[in-house]
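Hey, can you fold this one?
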Amino acid sequence: MQCDLCQNKATVFFTQMQSEGGIKKTAYCESCAEEQGVTDPFGLPGETAIEDSKMQDTKSQKALSNECPECQFTLDDLRKVGRLGCSHCFQYFREEIGQRLLSLHKGDQHSGRFPQILLDIQDRATRLAELHQQLQEAVAQEDYEKAASVRDEVRQIEEEKEGGQA
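Sure. Predicted structure:
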């Protein structure tokens, strides 16, 4: 991998969490890393912002430093092992788990693929429920012409469903 500034071989990799939830990754060679202050722990960019956020979040840090009341599993254990001690740990270490998820994934909600056939089945079921409601309303209003057309549409969808399964 090459340095982002001078194209020499990169040996220092700097990852920075951004306020909007993104991650900025930068690769530096040794000399560029020193020029940018990345190798100096007191010269890291955004250090004051990190310290400010730590001061504001002292309450949650105290909660995270304790151990789970059910299984005595600690935050250090979670960091070492990578697993939780019991089901209560999920609730107790909620903030740490949330931070880890955001650093590993783009978000904390799954929005991946869904099989198209399941989407089709769901759409068909929703449409059938709507049509059955319309059919009941048409019969209640004694609008038998509308009821007949809705009934025919229901039959057509059900026949398509049976034809697709055969």
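DSSP finds eight helices and two strands in the chain. Let me know if you want another pass with a different chain boundary.
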